Amino acid sequence: MAKHIAVAGNIGAGKTTLTNLLSKHYGWEMQLEDMDDNPYISDFYEDMQRWSFNLQVYFLTTRWRHVQNIRGGKNTVIQDRTIYEDAHIFAPNLHAMGLMSTRDFENYKQLFDAISNQVEPPDLLIYLRAGIPKLVHQIQMRGRDYEDAIRLDYLKRLNERYEAWISNYKGKLLIFNVDDMDFQERPEDAAEIIQKVESTLNGLF
Question: What is the pTM of this model?
Answer without folding.
Answer: 0.90
